[in-house]
Write a structure and sequence with these properties.
By secondary structure, the chain is mostly helical. Helices cover about 80% and strands about 0% of the residues. It starts with a helix and ends with a helix.
């Protein structure tokens, strides 16, 4: 995938993770429907899974910059 396009994709994932990650929207966006449903039911693993996903998305975006 083109570097600029991958950077934009990772930025989109970071924004979705930050705004709707506790509802599993980031997992749905990535195509991980099963994990998205589990994350939705647990409200982002009571916030822990939400924070981990936001940190991972930030790290991945930073590696591309």
């Amino acid at each position: 995938m083109e570097p600029r396009r991958e950077w934009q994709r990772q930025l989109t994932i970071l924004i979705i993770s930050f705004l709707g990650g506790y509802l599993g929207l980031d997992r749905f966006y990535r195509g991980e429907v099963g994990w998205g449903i589990i994350k939705l039911i647990t409200l982002g693993g009571l916030g822990i899974w939400y924070l981990v996903d936001v940190v991972i998305a930030s790290y991945r975006l930073g590696r591309l910059s």
